Amino acid sequence: MILQEQTLEIETERPPNRAWFIFIILFLIIDYGRPQDTFRFFGYIRPAMILIIILTLFIFRNLRLVTQKIFSIRLIWCFILILAIQIPFARNNRYAYNTMNTMLIAMPFILSCYAVITSTNRFKRIILIAVCLMAYQAQHAITHGGHGSGNVFLDENDLALFINTWLPFCLALFLSEKGFWKKTLFGIFMVLGLAADVVSFSRGGFMGLIAMVAVFWIFSPKKLLTLGILILGAVLVIIVSSLASSGKISHQKNRSFWGEMATSKNAQSGTAKERVESWKAGWRMFLANPLGIGGNNFQVRFPEYQDNEYFRRGMWGRVAHSLWFTLIPETGIFGIIVYLLLLFANIKAIFKLRKYAKILPEEDAKFLKNISVAFLASFAGFFASATFLAVLYYPHYWYLTGLLVAITLISTNKIETGTDKKELNVVQEA
Prior knowledge:
This protein is an all-alpha fold. Helices cover 74% and strands 0% of the residues.
């Protein structure tokens, strides 16, 4: 009886957060759907900035929900702090400040995720919104030569990275959800995602797709069913690649998809060689500046460390073309340590979810198994693609971290209390 009264007290004291959750969804739609790119007049009102301010106000009104001692969130704050400390020492202070600010404005969404997404249903809704936005960007790429609607989706390689990050969640929902129409919807989304990956003609994207597919199958609880779906996906890729190479569904006529993918094996010429030489310059940059050169300052310092026998002199503005070789010279030793600790913490959280799946009831366990595999496959697809792209400060991985914290807290609370509630202090004391 005392326990029930205290639990009721928790529910009563907890501030309403339905509006907060709605604004999280709106932010994701603005950030990933990019309606301001299609309707230019909409961009004049700065919808993303308005939503960031609103989410920040919600956070300050409910600080107790976002000040929990969560290791991965603290690591993100440490990463931002490192970027901030480097600003006065960076060659280009403005670039360093803008980079820190880019990370900082992602925090309202990340903090809001685990503060407000406090039930499995809410988590499913936010993932559903994300895969719908992935499908939207995918269809845009199919009809616009591999390009997304704008911002971080405009480049074909960045678009493929985004697809590889969210496609595993589409497959997880397909395997978890019941009902013909739901499965049909997620099936269509997967087709769009695979087609967009092909139409992008991105070699890094294709490598990310292979990594994502391999990891999903290895860890999938239903290997035969997953294998069947992946075989159908492979057939689709072959068909779409043929259509894309002929120019029937892209603007890349007479450009062989498989010919493009084959060039990724040759690191002695073309863009692959350029990337390797850029990475070597990044390593030299790190050895000369072990504490880091500041956010987005690789392109500023590149002329000092480039190989003048390979590159023309004064290649100012060239980026690292790799997440890792952006991380290493720009953030230095401390940034490397913090980032790798965050990656370790996230992987540890995923395997924690897999353990929880063995304890929870069947329906919850099924979803948790599939969503944990989706996170693993998403990280595999993201990092395999990101190895060849300067995307360290893109929001995808940081958003996924916030969502992973949310589903981990939800699952922990279900095991400890049998509910979706997060605030357990009074209950635990009782």
